[in-house]
Amino acid sequence: MNAVLLDIGSGSVGFSLVEFREGDVPIIKFTAREEFNLGEFLYTEKIVPQTFLVIERLKERMDRVTPVRSEEVHCFLASHLVMSQANTGRAVFDQPETITEEIIHDIARSGLNYSLLVPNMEKIEEKIMQVRLNGYETAEPVGHTAKEVEATSFVSLVEKDFLQASKYLLQSLFPDQPIKYHSFAFSSYGVIREILDETDDEFAFIDVGSEITEVGISRDGSLEKTISFPHGRSSLIREFASALGGMSPHVCSELKVWSRGHVHDEFGRGDDLIRAGEGWKEGFKSGVMTEAKGFPGKVFIISDEDVGPLYSRLLSDSYPEEFFLNNPEINLIDANLLRDFVKNRSGEGDDSFLMSEAVFVNKFLSSRINNN
Questions:
Q1: What is the β-pairing status of strands 72-77 and 27-35?
Q2: Contact 74, 4 (CB under 8 A)
């Protein structure tokens, strides 16, 4: 089965055609990404038509280089387009009840913050993350009996206007193909928790996009909270370019050199690069310091390969000691790691975000208890 994956980020759109085979890793047959500089227009209506134009151009590129056609489309949306919430509901029955999928979802929905359910929002995903029967976590609860049930779900909503407009566009580009929507947050969590077999109950992930960084916190086996703030890779490049006196090839070259561990290279601008990350550090601190339970000590950073080590350094340098219980254990999730789980045979460079999303689709869409 071939599927198109769209990574609709805050400052770029990624596009891939992926073959999924039962019992095998996904194979990327086409991959491309186009960036656009929206800057202060990030939260205005200008981002939507710009995003749609990029999707059309990338579809035309794919059609020119491969005759293979997709059978379905998966759209992954960044936080500027999605409102997400983790919900935990509980129920106590007078007599032991045989547990069904319907009961689990009803209980999880009972914990939903209904202030999210405004008329202009529509649900795109609802995932059951954890079920406890009589106080004990149960991996396969359906069919068991229990008097006390606790269910935790993760729900994401999108503005109806955007959803309708994007479906209209995608149905014109991919006629008669199912279109599925996912949030960056849940796909990142899923890849870390299941694909990388992360067994710790408490960890965090930091997804560094073009203009927005998304932070997710997992506790007790569930994605408990998501936070985002407006600073990402493109923001960093603009600030570093300003220190260099304007955009030049040296900006991206310096990032690549830094990622290889050679900060004091021929350009000698390592200190400028670190200073360019001050805005990100401040955004991280202001965003996560509201987390009353403190920030987890194990952190996964999802980013392009050229900035992953830099953000690892910025995170290590920025945290207040009283906020982390221990020095953070920082792990990078990039193309180098993901090559064990997905093969890129497109002839183009690796895109860590599209690779991660291909792994997510391969593993999770067949989940029996979760709704698509």
A1: unpaired
A2: yes
